[in-house]
Design goal:
The protein has 113 residues and is mainly alpha-helical. It is built from five helices and two strands, in the order ααααββα.
């Protein structure tokens, strides 16, 4: 093997290492490009680890169909039946009589973005 070929050998991370890397990225506040450049990780690798984590999280939620919630009191918006705070600061408010299937699809779409 030449030096160039040796330099291309990549570190294979186990699941725990990949999860740790994703947690560090999400806590860093950096863009994906900045984080990957600093850590020497390919942007595609980070994306794959994040997708794998979301899929595992979705499978866990889908298996139990129970979610932990915190009741914080009346919604500040008059007439709103429900307000949901999602990860990354996203908020969904729906009125009374909403379609649960549409809301579920919307939540899945937002969480995968």
């Amino acid at each position: 093997m030449s030096e160039e070929q040796v330099a291309r050998v990549r570190h294979r991370r186990n699941r725990a290492e990949a999860e740790q890397l994703v947690a560090e990225y999400e806590a860093s506040g950096w863009s994906g490009v900045e984080f990957c450049r600093e850590r020497g990780v390919a942007l595609g690798t980070l994306a794959r680890y994040r997708k794998r984590g979301r899929q595992a999280q979705g499978e866990a939620i889908g298996a139990s169909r129970w979610l932990a919630v915190e009741v914080s009191g009346p919604c500040p918006t008059a007439g709103s039946g429900l307000a949901v705070m999602l990860s990354r600061g996203r908020r969904i408010e729906v009125g009374r009589g909403f379609d649960a299937n549409t809301l579920e699809q919307l939540v899945r779409l937002l969480e995968s973005a």
